[in-house]
Design goal:
The chain is of the alpha+beta class and 241 residues long. It folds into two domains: 154 residues, 60s Ribosomal Protein L30, Chain: A, CATH 3.30.1330; 73 residues, CofE-like fold. It is 27% helix and 27% strand. It contains six helices and 13 strands. Helix 1 packs across helix 5. It is globular and about 55 Å long.
């Protein structure tokens, strides 16, 4: 618990394209940066690059807004009703999972998290990018590929940049994990360490346009758990199938 924790940026990661093998891209970047991974290191990856590699783009002309989305559009005129429909889809089409304050909309998604706009990013007027289908699986796939190369058991977190109701700016939250239990229990308390690690990584990764979609966290002590999943941190919710 008292070891120094360092966060090392992985620089010059090339632009990710749909169908890229994200693990291979990261492996090449790690080599180029001369970054050595050791047992217990944690790789934190921005959800955007995972989504792009998994081709999670949605063309808005394929979306037909329903009555709930149209009703939301009357309250949030700035939001395309088709995007509002996608936010509803992320919220299991349950209006009870939405929070609307002024022009802000958040959704408790199928991941169990409340995310601004359901974690959906607008690419242009005709396209949006949604979250990875299963961020825990995304994290696992990268971890296992890197483990094969380095021979070191590492953890992987998928993080998402998220704004919060009534607070300026954004922070980073964990939306997927492999190897790293999302909750740490000690001294009769619970800590959501997956979010603490994601937020710490965000200090180095920065926000959109900073060009650092992945970092390595060295020195954090945890009990590596192959079966760890984000749902372990949230009561009553689970990762989508």
């Amino acid at each position: 618990m008292h070891n120094p924790i360092t966060i090392e940026p992985i620089l010059d990661i090339p632009t990710i394209e749909p169908a890229d093998n994200l693990a291979n891209v990261l492996l090449a970047a790690l080599k180029q940066n001369n970054i050595q991974l050791a047992k217990g290191d944690i790789l934190c990856i921005a959800s955007k690059v995972a989504s792009i590699a998994e081709n999670q783009f949605v063309k808005l002309d394929t979306i037909t807004p329903g009555s709930d989305a149209k009703g939301l559009h009357e309250r949030i005129v700035r939001k395309d009703p088709r995007i509002l429909q996608l936010i509803l889809n992320e919220a299991n089409n349950d209006m009870a999972n939405l929070r609307v304050e002024g022009n802000w909309i958040g959704a408790r998604t199928k991941l169990g998290r409340v995310l601004t706009s359901g974690g959906i990013d607008k690419v242009d007027d005709s396209t949006v990018l949604v979250l990875p289908a299963n961020p825990d699986t995304s994290a696992k796939n990268v971890a296992l590929a890197i483990q094969t190369t380095y021979g070191a058991q590492i953890g992987v977190l998928i993080s998402d940049s998220d704004g919060r109701e009534g607070i300026a700016g954004a922070t980073q939250l964990c939306i997927g994990t492999y190897g790293v239990p999302p909750i740490r229990r000690q001294n009769d308390t619970e800590e959501t360490v997956c979010d603490m690690l994601a937020a710490a990584a965000g200090l180095v990764m920065g926000q959109r346009g900073n060009g650092i979609p992945a970092v390595v966290i060295h020195g954090f002590e945890y009990n590596f758990t192959e079966t760890a999943k984000l749902a372990d941190a949230y009561y009553g919710y689970s990762i989508r199938d």
